[in-house]
Automatic annotation (TrEMBL):
Record has Cell division as a keyword: no
Residues covered by the Subtilisin-like protease fibronectin type-III domain: 668-763
Taxonomy, superkingdom: Eukaryota
Protein name: Uncharacterized protein
Top-level taxonomy: Eukaryota, Viridiplantae, Streptophyta, Embryophyta, Tracheophyta
Signal sequence range: 1-30
Pfam families cross-referenced by the UniProt entry: fn3_6, Inhibitor_I9, PA, Peptidase_S8
Domain Inhibitor I9 stretches: 34-109
Family from the record: Belongs to the peptidase S8 family.
Keywords linked to the UniProt accession: Apoplast, Hydrolase, Protease, Secreted, Serine protease, Signal
Length: 775
C-alpha cells in the first residue's frame, strides 16, 4: 500500500458540498508515491510485449522483476503506452531520465460532477419520423460510461427486445462483490469493469472506513453512474415519477444502444476517482470497441495543460478520438462565473447544462390572500394557515438571525410555524436550514435565494419552498407589516410546455476557455436540471429506485445519447463531424420562439460562453448539410499553436512531429466556431466545410457581425457537386473602433434553403496599451 493521504487534507479538499448531487468532480494533487509513467503511443501491436517492456523498465530501476511486479499498479497497453507504479521520489526521478519516457507525474485524485427532456429536445417516441426512429434508437452502437458503476437490476437496463451483442465488441464483464457477470450483464449491459488499484494505492486504507458503503465490483453504491448511464441509453420504463412529480415514461437518448461500464469513481469521502484508474479505463475502452465515451467527470481551476497526464481525461480522450471514438464530457458546475469551464481540449465535446420546459410551482398563500409561486419538490399534505416568522435580532444587524446557513431559532420561537430565511448559497444552505427548523418543531420553510431551477427535496419530505429575493422581500414586508402573519403551503405541481422557458443553469460553468481562449467552450448545452433517471437504492435522494438530479453530469449523457444516434445513422462520421453537426444546428431560442436566457446575477440573454452553439437539436444534427471535419493532424496543429514541446507532441501522437518554424494560427483550427480573443485591427482566418447533404447544392453566407466589427467571407457562395465535397473559405474580421472591449457575439451561417449551418462568432477587440512616459 502507498502512504495514506492525511485525512484532514482529504476532508478539506475532496468532500462534496453537504448533500449536493450537482457532482462537479474536483481534482487535487495526490500526496502518495503512486506515479504515472507516460510513454506516448504504443510501439507494438502485441499488448503482452508492451506490458513486458513496462515491467522491464520498472525492474531496471527497482532492482528485480519480482519487486517490479509488486510495485506495478497498471500497464497501459492498448490506446497508448505507459504504466502506473509505486515509487519513491528518487526512483521516479530515475525513471524520468530513461529513454522513451515522455513524463513521470504523480497520480492525482478526482471527484465525481428523464420523463420530459427527450420530448423537449424533439425526440418523442410517438413521432415516427425523428432521429430517434431513423437511427433505430441507436441499435448497434456501444456507449462506454466512466463513472461510479451501475445498478444492473434497474428496469432501465433490461435487454428485452434487443438483438445480439454487436460484433465489434471485444470487452468483458467482470464479477465482483454483489455483481455476477453471467447474471448481471446482458445484451444491454454488455461489459462491466472496475478499476480501483490507483485509488487504493493512494488512499492507503480500506475504502469502507469512510462510512459509505462500497462494492469491489461494477455495482454502483453512489447512484451517479446509474443515473448517467440510464440517461444516455436506458430502456423505456413506464409510469415513473419522483415523489409523484414529473410522471411519465423515462428512457435514455439511445434506448437500443449497448452499455459498457467502467467504474473508476468510488464512494469514498463523497466520491473519488484516480487518474491512474481513469487512464486505465480509457486504455481498455479503446481496446474493447466502444463508439462513444461519456464522462461526467471534470478537473479544477487552474487546469492542467492539454498534454499533462495529471488530467488523465485530456490525454485519454486524445487517444480515444484518434481511434474514432467520440468523447463527451461535462463543462463542470462552477457557474455562473466566467472562465470556469473545464474539459476544454478541442477534441472533447464539452456540455453545459440547461433547464427545460418543465417546472414544479408550489403555491405560497399569505394571510392577505396574496399567492406567490415558489419552486419545490414537495408532495406531502397541504400545510394549512400557520404562523409565519422571520427571525430577527436587536442591534446593528437585525437580519443576521435570518440567514439560512446560520439560522438562529429555538423551539419556543418556531414550534408549529413556517420560517422565512434568506441566503446567497444554494443546496447546502436550504437543507441545513430545513434541518434546524424541523428540529425546532417548525412545520415549513421558505428560502429566498438567487434564482435557480435545480431542486432537491428536504429530509423526510419536510416542506421547503424556494423563491427569489423579490418574492422573499415581499413576504418579509408582509411579516413586518402584520400583527399575526400566517401562510399556507400547498403541494408542488408539474407544469410543462410553453409557459416554461429553458435557461442555462445557474451552476453551469461558463467560458471563455482559460487554457486557450480562441477555442470556444462549452461546445453545446443540454438539459441538466431536475433530470429523472434510474439510480442506486443507496442514493440518499432515491424514490423507488429513481432520483431527480441536476448538474452538467446530467447534461453530458443527453449529448452522449444523441452522439450515439448520429453514429448509428452515420457510422463513417468522425468525432469532429459529430461535434460539428451538434454545434452548428443547435437552438438559440426555446421551442416557443423566445430566446434562451442564462441564469446568473443578473439573468441575461445567453451567449456562446454560456451554451456554445446553443441547446442541442438532435433532429437538426442528423442532417446538418455541412460539417467542419478534423483529424489528428488538425489537433497537432492546435498543439503546435499552443507552443507545446515537439517531443511531447510526438509521443502523444505516436509519430515524429516537428512544429513548423512559423507557428500555426490557433484561429485556423477547423472548429465549428470562431473565437477571436485579441482583435487589434484586422485578422483573416480560414475554415473548410465538408458536404454531407445532397451531392449538388449551393450554400450562401449570412453574416451577423459582432458589435463594433465588420465581417466578410470569401467566397460567400459555396457550390458543391459530385466531385467537389470540400471547400475552403476565408473570414476577415475588422475592428470598427480602436478601443478595448469585452466580447461581442455574432455568427456566420451557411444556408442552401434547407439546411442552416450556423457558426458562433465571438470577438473581443484589444488594442495595445499606449506608451506612458513616467518622466
Amino acid at each position: 500500500m502507498g502512504k495514506p493521504i492525511p485525512l484532514c487534507a482529504l476532508l478539506c479538499l475532496l468532500l462534496f458540498p453537504c448533500g449536493q448531487v450537482i457532482l462537479n468532480i474536483t481534482k487535487v494533487e495526490a500526496t502518495s508515491n503512486v506515479h504515472i509513467v507516460y510513454l506516448g503511443e504504443t510501439q507494438h501491436d502485441d499488448p503482452m510485449l508492451t506490458t513486458n517492456s513496462h515491467h522491464d523498465m520498472l525492474a531496471s530501476v527497482v532492482g528485480s522483476k519480482e519487486i517490479a511486479s509488486e510495485l506495478m499498479v497498471y500497464s497501459y497497453k492498448h490506446g497508448f503506452s505507459g504504466f502506473a507504479a509505486k515509487f519513491t521520489e528518487s526512483q521516479a526521478q530515475k525513471v524520468a531520465e530513461l529513454p522513451g519516457v515522455v513524463r513521470v507525474i504523480p497520480n492525482s485524485l478526482h471527484r465525481i460532477q428523464t420523463t420530459r427532456s427527450w420530448d423537449f429536445l424533439g425526440l418523442s417516441a410517438h413521432s415516427p419520423v425523428n432521429t430517434l426512429h431513423n437511427s433505430s434508437m441507436g441499435d448497434g452502437v456501444i456507449i462506454g460510461v466512466l463513472d461510479t458503476g451501475i445498478w444492473p437490476e434497474a428496469k432501465s437496463f433490461s435487454d428485452k427486445g434487443l438483438g445480439p451483442i454487436p460484433s465489434h465488441w471485444k470487452g468483458v464483464c467482470e464479477s465482483g462483490k454483489r455483481f455476477k457477470a453471467k447474471r448481471h450483464c446482458n445484451r444491454k449491459i454488455i461489459g462491466a469493469r472496475w478499476f480501483v488499484e490507483g485509488l487504493v494505492a493512494e488512499y492507503g486504507q480500506p475504502l469502507n472506513i469512510s462510512g459509505n458503503r462500497e462494492f469491489f465490483s461494477p455495482r454502483d453504491a453512489n447512484g451517479h453512474g446509474t443515473h448517467t448511464a440510464s440517461t444516455a441509453a436506458g430502456a423505456f420504463v413506464h409510469n415513473v415519477s419522483y415523489r409523484g412529480l414529473g410522471h411519465g415514461t423515462i428512457r435514455g437518448g439511445a434506448p437500443r444502444a449497448r452499455l459498457a461500464i467502467y467504474k473508476v469513481c468510488w464512494n469514498v469521502l463523497g466520491g473519488q476517482c484516480s487518474s491512474a484508474d481513469i487512464l486505465k479505463a480509457f486504455d481498455e475502452a479503446i481496446h474493447d470497441g466502444v463508439d462513444v465515451l461519456s464522462l461526467s467527470i471534470g478537473s479544477s481551476i487552474p487546469l492542467f495543460s492539454d498534454i499533462d497526464e495529471r488530467d488523465g481525461i485530456a490525454t485519454g480522450s486524445f487517444h480515444a478520438v484518434a481511434k474514432g471514438i467520440t468523447v463527451v464530457c461535462g463543462a463542470a458546475n462552477d457557474g455562473p462565473f466566467a472562465q470556469t469551464v473545464q474539459n476544454s481540449a478541442p477534441w472533447i465535446l464539452t456540455v453545459a447544462a440547461t433547464s427545460m420546459d418543465r417546472a414544479f410551482p408550489t403555491p405560497i398563500t399569505l394571510g392577505n390572500n396574496k399567492t406567490f409561486l415558489g419552486q419545490a419538490i414537495y408532495t406531502g399534505k397541504e400545510i394549512g394557515f400557520s404562523s409565519l416568522i422571520y427571525p430577527e435580532t436587536k442591534g446593528l444587524n437585525p437580519n443576521s438571525a435570518g440567514v439560512c446557513q446560520s439560522l438562529s431559532v429555538d423551539n419556543s420561537m418556531v414550534a408549529g410555524k413556517v420560517v422565512l430565511c434568506f441566503t446567497t448559497m444554494n443546496l447546502g444552505a436550504v437543507r441545513s436550514a430545513a434541518e434546524v427548523v424541523k428540529e425546532a418543531g417548525g412545520v415549513g420553510l421558505i428560502v429566498a435565494k438567487n434564482p435557480g431551477e435545480a431542486l432537491y427535496p428536504c429530509t423526510d419530505g419536510f416542506p421547503c419552498v424556494e423563491v427569489d429575493y423579490e418574492i422573499g422581500t415581499r413576504i418579509l414586508f408582509y411579516i413586518r407589516s402584520t400583527r399575526s402573519p400566517v401562510v399556507k403551503l400547498s403541494p408542488s405541481k408539474t407544469v410543462v410546455g410553453e409557459p416554461v422557458l429553458a435557461k442555462v443553469a445557474h451552476f453551469s460553468s461558463r467560458g471563455p476557455n482559460s487554457i486557450a481562449p480562441a477555442i470556444l467552450k462549452p461546445d453545446i448545452a443540454a438539459p441538466g436540471v431536475n433530470i429523472l433517471a434510474a439510480t442506486s437504492p443507496l442514493d440518499r435522494f432515491q424514490d423507488g429506485g429513481y432520483a431527480m438530479h441536476s448538474g452538467t453530469s446530467m447534461a453530458t449523457p443527453h449529448v452522449t445519447g444523441i452522439a450515439a444516434l448520429l453514429k448509428a445513422m452515420h457510422p463513417d462520421w468522425s468525432p469532429a463531424a459529430i461535434k460539428s453537426a451538434i454545434v452548428t444546428t443547435a437552438w438559440r431560442n426555446n421551442p416557443s420562439g423566445f430566446p434562451v436566457f442564462a441564469e446568473g446575477s443578473p439573468q441575461k440573454l445567453a451567449d456562446p460562453f454560456d451554451y456554445g452553439g446553443g441547446i442541442t437539436n438532435p433532429n437538426g444534427a442528423a442532417q446538418p448539410g455541412l460539417v467542419y471535419d478534423m483529424a489528428t493532424d488538425d489537433y497537432v496543429n492546435y498543439l503546435c499553436a499552443m507552443d507545446y514541446n515537439n517531443t511531447a507532441i510526438s509521443w502523444l501522437t505516436g509519430n515524429p512531429t516537428v512544429c513548423p518554424t512559423e507557428e500555426p494560427s490557433i484561429l485556423n483550427i477547423n472548429l465549428p466556431s470562431i473565437t477571436i480573443p485579441n482583435l487589434r485591427n484586422s485578422t483573416t482566418l480560414t475554415r473548410t466545410v465538408t458536404n454531407v447533404g445532397a451531392s449538388t447544392s449551393i450554400y450562401r453566407a449570412v453574416i451577423e457581425p459582432p458589435f463594433g466589427t465588420s465581417v466578410s467571407v470569401k467566397p460567400n457562395v459555396l457550390v458543391f457537386d459530385r466531385e467537389t465535397k470540400k471547400l475552403t473559405f476565408s473570414v476577415t474580421v475588422n475592428a470598427a473602433h480602436q478601443v478595448n472591449t469585452g466580447y461581442f457575439f455574432g455568427s456566420i451561417t451557411w444556408t442552401d434553403g434547407v439546411h442552416t449551418v450556423r457558426t458562433p462568432l465571438s470577438v473581443r477587440t484589444e488594442i495595445s496599451q499606449p506608451y506612458i512616459d513616467e518622466n
